[in-house]
Specification:
- Helices cover 21% and strands 46% of the residues.
- The protein is α+β, with helices and mostly antiparallel strands.
- Strands 1, 2, 3, 4, 5, 6, 7 and 8 form an eight-stranded antiparallel β-sheet that branches.
- The longest helix is centred in the C-terminal third of the chain and has 15 residues.
- The protein is globular and about 60 Å long.
- The chain starts with 6 loop residues before the first strand and ends in a 5-residue tail after the last strand.
Length: 160
């Protein structure tokens, strides 16, 4: 990381950023170009091992790519704020943000794990317990990303 002064050095700090984010972008290998998808996600952390969960329809390009090569990159970011740094008539500015990037392997979740994974997805977006219609489960595919490497970065303008 070029700007080590912005690096989030502890896994707890990285997880806190991930908990604030509402979209995770996955990049699959697709020959000469990456195939990137913005996705809703759920997260589970066990002994510093992060697992992300996603859901979708039962077919599509992502599944074809996953079958060929299940290695993916991911990115999520939040807390964006434009900060003007120059005089009022100047367009000098910077951006505040928090971000996480990483990589890992994706795989489909077995049917017996699907309910728990969908509960984690719902928990990420709802403060109160929110049950979903279980009748959607047979036509919903759930997959998980086991994170193998992750780093985080934060940029906050220093207060004067």
């Amino acid at each position: 990381m070029r700007r080590s002064d912005r690096e989030i050095k502890d896994i707890e700090g990285i997880i806190q950023v991930m908990e604030k984010c509402d979209v995770c972008r996955l990049a699959f290998y697709d020959g000469g170009y990456p195939y990137i998808l913005p996705l809703n996600f759920g997260m589970q952390v066990h002994e510093d091992q992060i697992t992300l969960y996603f859901h979708g329809a039962d077919e599509g390009k992502k599944y074809e790519l996953m079958e060929k090569d299940n290695r993916v990159g991911f990115e999520m970011d939040c807390s964006h704020k434009l900060v003007m740094t120059g005089a009022k008539d100047s367009c000098s500015c910077t951006m505040e943000y928090e971000s996480v990037v990483g990589r890992g392997r994706v795989e489909k979740v077995l049917d017996e794990e699907k309910f728990q994974a969908l509960c984690l997805l719902m928990k990420h977006y709802h403060k109160e317990e929110c049950m979903f219609d279980k009748s959607v489960m047979p036509r919903t595919t759930v997959w998980k990303l086991t994170v193998e490497q992750v780093s985080g970065k934060i940029r906050k303008k220093k207060k004067k």
